[in-house]
Amino acid sequence: MKKITGAQAFIEALRCEGVTHAFGYPGGAVLDIFDAIMDARDIQFILSRHEQGAVHAADGYARASGRVGVCLVTSGPGATNTVTGIATAYMDSIPIVVFTGQVPTHLIGNDAFQEADIVGITRPCTKHNYLVKDVCDLGRVIKEAFYIARTGRPGPVLVDLPKNVMNSTVNFKYPDSVSLDSYCPTYKGHQGQIRRIMGVILKSRRPVIYAGGGVTLADASKELAEFARRLKLPVTTTLMGMGAFPSDDPLSLGMLGMHGTYAANMTVTNSDCLIAVGARFDDRVTGKVDEFAPKARIIHIDIDPTSISKNVKVDLPVVGDCRMVLRGMLAELAGKDAELAEMVSQTEPWRREIGDWKKQQPLKYCKSENIKPQYVIEMIDEIAPDDTIITTEVGQNQMWTAQFYKFNEPRHFLTSGGLGTMGYGFPAAIGAQAAFPGRTVIDIAGDGSIQMNIQELATVVQYNLPVKVMILNNGYLGMVRQWQSLFYKKRYSHTSMAVAPDFVKLAEAYGAKGLRVTRPEDVKDAIREALRIPGPVFVDFVVDPEEDVYPMVPAGAPINNMLLV
Amino acid sequence: MRHAISVYVDNQAGVLSRVVGLFSGRGFNIESLSVAPTLDPAKSMMVITTTGNEQVLEQIKKQLNKLINVIKVVDCADRDYVEREMILVKIKAEKETRAEVLRIADIFRAKVIDVSPKSYTLSLTGDKSKLEGFVEILTPLGIIDLVRTGTVVMEREMQGRRKLT
Q1: Domain extent for A82
Q2: Is residue A207 part of a domain?
Q3: Do the Cβ atoms of A442 and A74 come closer than 8 Å?
Q4: Do residue A141 and residue A281 come from a single domain?
Q5: B-chain residues within 8 Å CB-CB of A182?
């Protein structure tokens, strides 16, 4: 075994993990690693223009591909700039490993140049983190970091790498396995409990499935669809669950919660059996907790025991991997054809009632001579290929996308659900495009959000990543303005974005293409044109400035209390 | 309700901070805390006493279990256990009270560990209620200084015995 440097060992470890892409930004403390990266032709390194962009790109890469995203930045400000990205991934349970440079071990704690206690700073927003003090620990730590990031409830792991550890030498051997006696996630659900919940479901008369991001993370969409279709169960999804169940299935109710569909919220409120699968009863979903699904027995399937009975008291929990538990539930149907047929026929009136809710209050908006943002999204959905990956920023653009774009496949919709990070969508699109160079990747943005990581325009131009950014430009921080309009007597305090760059010229200044659309009749052509251009494109849709997102449940109200169009 | 939770953890830098951060980050209060290495020097035992309703405690225990460096979490409220903490009290002891302080120390089986012409320093171990009783009796005599350790707990060897009696 020949001796290699810590930096070379680091590259070797990435290879052993099968890493093909990394996102990051160099600096003093990581010079050794960046030097080693120059020789690692098998790992494509994508240089962002801000460390936050690098983490979101790693996150977008992970969400789109299902693999662990990798990010590498320097110490101090490089490390602190990753915090928002890490917190974003943490809230949405996204497997990424963030490597940060650190000052040499003998300077740690000395307030050295570009020193930050990033392990301390990120302790509450990582699944786990490490400071590598000895190069001999490097292999084990990286192995554990990837293992922890992708197993159980996935999440971000940070590894802090002091400069002297990276330039000292080691007899390097990457470990074959991890031994963590304190960490062993439960995958297989309790068999007796699975039998019990099937008993309850088969006797229910007003059942509904409430599916979240856990279904996508567990790659359980097929099992979910099979389960829902066999039992003819209506399915509503959270924002994170969009695409986990096909929107075009007649059993689909769309999203529930604050901006959920009328049918979804009415169904949950009137249900007698709520089957939560990989969801966590977020306040944006439940509204007033005491009146959430008040008549329902609540079944909760989740890999994370802390999610169970955290916000809503659960009657029948199953801790386990969504896919394995759903398979177990399907297996329980064997030999129960009569019971199943009975249940399906007994729940027929329930599905008719839901059908009426869908008919009474479909998602809608009023047409006008201005471009309606919802219309832009409907047209993107109509024109973009089926395998398009959509990312969004946060706010109205995100909610309209969730409502009006029909997602039929998991991992097609990347959005910051838990943390609600403006500036997420554009760099996340970079990560998705890097993972799938041949597919169309579209960031649906607002004029406010896009400015939060606009510097990544240089990245898409440098690597010729043909990301299409569709800006719904209403000249406002639209969602905040909407709340001010509804609850603060239209006092629009600091939500005007009237002073903004000319996005077309800005895109051109970076070397990308820019298009502007001001009339509804030009929307379709502009989308087609953007998709035809081989490189990155910004399309500036000047939309109705005061359009609101409906339905809307006021904060803290029960979810059947909706403001409608 | 007050709970003593014993948490068996990896003896590594930062583990205490992870555990404590979990409490503070969720607004849970720690009443007392003691940490020390176990027979296996690579592991430490933390004993945390805290209060909260069942739902809060359930969440605390699950969150503790979720930490990578936490190996085992036991809520002593579910078990028969013995608990001890220690107190050091520096108390005024001048002519008229000098004998009285010693009598009280004797009743509680406290030890005198430091003497000066005007004070005694006493040490006492016991459970929370015994220590509280001790402090209550001593207070009128003039406590100069007082320090207390966190609680340590150990399961009783014969579980369920108390339930029979």
Answers
A1: 3-171
A2: yes
A3: no
A4: no
A5: 9-10, 67-71
